[in-house]
Amino acid sequence: xxxxxxxxxxxxxxxxxxxxxxxxxxxxxxxxSAITAAPVKAFAPYIDAHAHLDDRSAAGISSMLDTMSRQNxxxxxxxxxxxxxDDPTNYDTEVVLAIGKQHLxxxxxxxxxxxxxxxxxxxxxxxxxxxAVQTKFxxxxxxxxxxxxxxxxxxxxEHFPSPGSATYQYAPADHPLLLLLADIAAQHSLPIVLHTxxxxxxxxxxxxxxxxxxxxxxxxNIDALGRLLAHNPRAxxxxxxxxxxxxxxxxxxxxxxxxxxxPNLYMEIKVDxxxxxxxxxxxxxxxxxxxxxxxxxFPDRFIIGSDQHYPEGKGPQRWQAAIQLLDQxxxxxxxxxxxxxxxxxxxxxxD
Length: 351
Fold this sequence. Notes:
Elements: E1 4-5, E2 9-11, H1 14-20, E3 25-26, E4 46-53, H2 58-69, E5 73-79, H3 93-100, E6 107-112, H4 116-126, H5 131-147, E7 152-159, E8 169-170, H6 176-188, E9 192-196, E10 203-204, E11 217-218, H7 222-231, E12 237-242, H8 252-261, E13 265-269, E14 282-283, E15 286-287, H9 289-297, E16 302-304, E17 308-310, H10 318-328, H11 331-345
Parallel strand pairs: 4-5, 4-17, 5-6, 6-7, 7-9, 9-12, 12-13, 13-16
Antiparallel strand pairs: 1-2, 2-3, 7-8, 10-11, 14-15
């Protein structure tokens, strides 16, 4: 199914995306048989505020930069996935910063997924959030700020195993270490990127999630997220992966309530073309009206965070799905979400 948007360019469905490996556009009057699998650039330059570099070799870096040239992406923010100390693929920020400093015009780095998040998870498991633990945690956060990260993350309070980070992780959003990080983030004007699957109340593990490796029941976390946001209203908290929902409860209504209640909350938009999840913002390739209305009602609070992993794997790409969504937005809203909002949120100045 196709429909004209913003001057006649047409977006195809995610089903077509999957069948063609990456998306394509049909110009007005062009037959669908003319669709090719050629890469599609965004209408306008944009910033992808959430991506991961899995292969940090020279070849991996070159592949990522080549992919970026095909997107019309102005800059990519690289994060370390949320790791524990037991994760065999754990690495941390210094190696990514070294890469970023070689490509300052293309890359910025958000730090702490391999250290701050691992320290948080260790504290939850051990039950130790003593002054000594907090002192060590604060020292690492301050070190990352000195090294030049533009934010802290990827932190997590509810994480199901994934290829990028293979462990189940849980932490209360109002854990002492996260409250401490909010104070540090506010002091340095560095946003926190938070991976939190929405769980509005204690509940059995929703299908089709499996236990193990996940626990048989989940802890409520929305109220605790509200307490984290209220703890220091000067701390910018970016709730990652809006539109890629594994529990079924990251609805536009829950997002709306949290955004209305907390002016320091921001959200990344993610569409996963290989696994749409339970509340995707698109259907048949078009933005759903309730998600679009949410973006319009909070135009200053959303950014693109594709969660693309580089180098590209086979099949549909998350960056292409992000472009498909971004290109459907009205031009003024597209400019805000694609470029203006990430520049303002990450500019080092309070709103």
